[in-house]
């Protein structure tokens, strides 16, 4: 069995730019804000580029070859990996939980997290809010008291943020992040700086009622238990995993010498190479790894070796 190498899908955004070219992608024209790297979502389906499943899509494999994912119970491929280029600030937004999303949007909720690949000096996130209760939240939104409502958090390259559903948040100008999330494309815009779409000449739609319905009040920062293990010249970091994060675990692998790996808590592993080059070896066969490559190591592969000089963000589904 081979690892499944995937073809990225790109999305133009009013806040995007051209920095994704640093991953050697052949970007389409325009301001590209999102690389959907590993996805079974209908808004950006990942196509397999190699082996016996070449030309097939992840969502189809999920339905028709469930052995690749350990015969999961879920109806949809549960995770989505993106790289985001915030040339300008994203809207201030919130995502619903599973219950609200299934009821109103007919898809999964959206808990997500960010590994900060790059942040320009002085960069910050919107992360959480200062309202003490629901009444105060609604009043501050109605009056547009954004400076007092929104929490600004300084950010630097290498930081990690866990963003549960219900969290007010936004990536701001000058940040590039790898995002691991539930497979959902539901976003409720709370505030968008009164920007106007070039194509329509109108302000983008806001979702004030949905935002008020889904924002967690009061905001509480998640208590993460980030752990690092040194193994020879290699460094392995666990950013988040169940039970803190019920939907996924996320890791950083900093590889300098051969490392033999296996699935940790999940049945299959998602891999994104954010820097460097090297190889992954499965059953005596080598496959090249380089910056910007994304792949899934399926459940049918129990053990593999990674070698080279590589910086990798990996993830696993927390769902059974």
From TrEMBL:
<feature type="domain" description="Mannose-6-phosphate isomerase cupin">
    <location>
        <begin position="243"/>
        <end position="315"/>
    </location>
</feature>
<comment type="similarity">
    <text>Belongs to the mannose-6-phosphate isomerase type 1 family.</text>
</comment>
<feature type="domain" description="Phosphomannose isomerase type I catalytic">
    <location>
        <begin position="5"/>
        <end position="103"/>
    </location>
</feature>
<dbReference type="InterPro" id="IPR011051">
    <property type="entry name" value="RmlC_Cupin_sf"/>
</dbReference>
<keyword id="KW-0479">Metal-binding</keyword>
<dbReference type="InterPro" id="IPR014628">
    <property type="entry name" value="Man6P_isomerase_Firm_short"/>
</dbReference>
<dbReference type="InterPro" id="IPR014710">
    <property type="entry name" value="RmlC-like_jellyroll"/>
</dbReference>
<dbReference type="InterPro" id="IPR049071">
    <property type="entry name" value="MPI_cupin_dom"/>
</dbReference>
<dbReference type="InterPro" id="IPR051804">
    <property type="entry name" value="Carb_Metab_Reg_Kinase/Isom"/>
</dbReference>
<dbReference type="Pfam" id="PF21621">
    <property type="entry name" value="MPI_cupin_dom"/>
</dbReference>
<dbReference type="Pfam" id="PF20511">
    <property type="entry name" value="PMI_typeI_cat"/>
</dbReference>
<dbReference type="GO" id="GO:0004476">
    <property type="term" value="F:mannose-6-phosphate isomerase activity"/>
</dbReference>
<protein>
    <recommendedName>
        <fullName>Mannose-6-phosphate isomerase</fullName>
        <ecNumber>5.3.1.8</ecNumber>
    </recommendedName>
</protein>
<keyword id="KW-0413">Isomerase</keyword>
<keyword id="KW-0862">Zinc</keyword>
<dbReference type="InterPro" id="IPR046457">
    <property type="entry name" value="PMI_typeI_cat"/>
</dbReference>
<dbReference type="InterPro" id="IPR001250">
    <property type="entry name" value="Man6P_Isoase-1"/>
</dbReference>
């Amino acid at each position: 069995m081979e690892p499944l190498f995937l073809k990225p899908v790109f999305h133009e955004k009013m806040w995007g730019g051209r920095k994704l070219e640093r991953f050697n992608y052949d970007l389409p024209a325009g301001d590209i804000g999102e690389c959907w790297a590993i996805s079974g979502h209908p808004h950006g389906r990942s196509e397999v580029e190699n082996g016996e499943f070449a030309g097939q899509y992840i969502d189809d494999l999920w339905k028709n070859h469930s052995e690749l994912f350990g015969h999961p119970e879920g109806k949809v491929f549960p995770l989505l990996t993106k790289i985001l280029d915030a040339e300008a600030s994203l809207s201030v937004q919130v995502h619903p939980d599973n219950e609200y999303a299934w009821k109103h949007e007919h898809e999964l909720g959206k808990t997500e997290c960010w590994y900060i690949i790059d942040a320009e000096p002085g960069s910050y996130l919107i992360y959480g809010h200062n309202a003490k209760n629901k009444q105060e939240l609604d009043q501050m939104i109605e009056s547009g008291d954004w400076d007092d409502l929104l929490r600004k958090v300084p950010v630097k390259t290498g930081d990690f943020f866990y963003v549960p559903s219900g969290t007010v948040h936004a990536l701001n100008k000058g940040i590039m992040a790898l995002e691991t999330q539930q497979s959902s494309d539901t976003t409720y815009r709370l505030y968008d700086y009164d920007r106007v779409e070039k194509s329509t000449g109108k302000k983008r739609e806001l979702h004030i009622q949905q935002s008020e319905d889904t924002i967690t009040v009061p905001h509480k920062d998640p208590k993460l238990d980030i752990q690092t293990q040194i193994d020879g010249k290699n460094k392995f970091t666990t950013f988040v995993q169940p039970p803190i994060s019920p939907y996924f675990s996320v890791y950083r692998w900093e590889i300098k010498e051969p490392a033999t790996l296996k699935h940790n808590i999940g049945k299959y592993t998602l891999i994104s190479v954010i820097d460097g080059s090297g190889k992954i070896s499965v059953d005596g066969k080598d496959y090249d790894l380089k910056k910007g490559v994304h792949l899934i190591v399926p459940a049918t592969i129990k053990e593999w070796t990674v070698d080279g000089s590589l910086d990798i963000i990996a993830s696993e589904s927390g769902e059974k």
